[in-house]
Amino acid sequence: MSFTSVPFDHRLEPQTSAAALVFAGIHWAAMQYGIAARVEDTALNMAQAVVHGVFDWLPRVEAYTGIGTLTQIRVLCRTLLSPAERVRERPSPPQRGLRSYICLPADGEQVEIRIGTQSILTVTDRTGYIDQVITLLEPVKPGWHTVHFTTPRSGATSHAPFLAVDPAAKVGLVSDIDDTTMITAVPQLAVAAWRTFLEKTVNREPVAGMSALFSELISAYPTAPVIYLSNGAWNSAPALRRFLARWHFPPGPLLLTDFGPTATGFFRSGKTHKRQQIRWLMEFFPDIGWFLFGDNGQSDPEIYSEAAREYPNRVAAIAIRTLNAVQRILWLAGAFPAEIPDNHDTVVPFVAGANGDELGAELRKLGLLPSLPNPSRIESRA
After folding, report:
1. How far is CA 352 from CA 296, 330, 375, in A?
2. pLDDT at res. 376
3. With contact defined as beta carbons under 8 Å apart, do 315 and 289 qualify?
4. CATH architecture classification, 171-381
């Protein structure tokens, strides 16, 4: 299967306006001096002083699913400030909405991480997060285990599962969430905002056939890890987990991001986030070839194409759910198939379809699902 590169038409480039130049200048200043991050830190410090001194709020831990090998585990959590009387209460069922985005992080907070009999004391970053790879003193068995988190100052505890990937795994699955597993209509900003901030999780609809397709892949390759990679905020993680479980998507860790300023700009770059996480997966699991699932609503085709160029033998296939015509995907990506160095005589398989059923049918045509006689093609590429 081959695809022709589509040249970029520079007539489609937007004209530079005065407003764009002003915004570019502000963004440059933010990058040079970290202005946005400093403003955010000042505001958070003032708010933390009030809730500490006046309302006696204490830190609690929100734990996220981790992933790793038998000897190294990536653990993720966040500490948030809450009223003292609620810190030890069982949290109410999470809903993806505006309320989940209204929170106050506890930066510089000590957190004890416990895996089995091993215990580590670490400190949260400026936005309350811990994202750390821990080397285990004793290897664990492949499969699911539990990591425990405690904040010594409040005594609040939390726990989350983590997946120790089987060393025999040669195939893995990375999937976007919005408009790949869950209908969000991200390109339509008003609709996306309504569904993100106001609509309850129980009212959200999955992309047809996608859960069944993922389950079919996992049935064919039982050791394959599943990663849900999204530009969505960690605030939505509890609701996203509930959504994925409700619609029977295979369990797997979420790799999300955080809204708000950084030391280099006013907002985190979604493209940069996805590129960094894909590189981490490629390097941390050097023997796995990945199915990359996304949609053409934003930049998934471009990002996945870059990953295939950077790691030509590590991408089993790129599968894009089309929100519009396939031609739009090719225009967005600009260069399918992902070019492979001259010493390789294959291209990265690329399929597109409106839902999981169509994507599954295309993968079967290429022999990438076991209903056709050559499923070993995937493992031979990894």
Report:
1. 9, 10, 19
2. 41
3. yes
4. 3-Layer(aba) Sandwich (3.40)
